[in-house]
Amino acid sequence: MTYEVRVAEVSETDTVINTLTLAFATDPPVRWLLPTPDAFLAGFPGFARAMGGPGMAEGCGYLAEGGAAAALWLPPGVSSDSEAMAAAIGPHLTEATGAVVGEVSAAMSGYHPHEPHWYLAFVGVDPVRQGLGLGSALLKAGLKRCDEDGVIAYLESSSPRNIPLYERFGFEVIGVVQPGDFPPVYPMLRAARG
Asked: What is the residue-averaged pLDDT of the chain?
């Protein structure tokens, strides 16, 4: 099936974040960080905005099918706002979970590429539309631009069930991050094409 995928306008940032909020409501690492409904709804939108939102101004946010699915990419040279990410989740962490988050952050930075790359910060589908190919359509759109640049792509899969999808697009698991009781996250890299 063919879906309409387009670059999201900056004015549609709320739509992108709302779709991702629905998509990540049951994501194991996100819910470990923000375990209660109140914490999730208070913290996740700001966290997603800080992690992937800088790509919106670069034309790297995508919407499919009128907001049924969304993705936030960061192109080479654009980074997440780590201070704003910490501010979004910090109020919801305990001393113990904060220590684990520090370990997670350190481990992830060890896998994150230092050379020019495209970073898929988030891709998500409204739960009522999952499993229909919308995620694949978003990946194709983002990877097309990545391949035009001829650079590597990187992501962190927060669910083992998503790994086969990413592998179909050329990503390979390069490790696992799982300190303490934190749910596993799988850094994945895709070689440069073009």
From this structure: 96
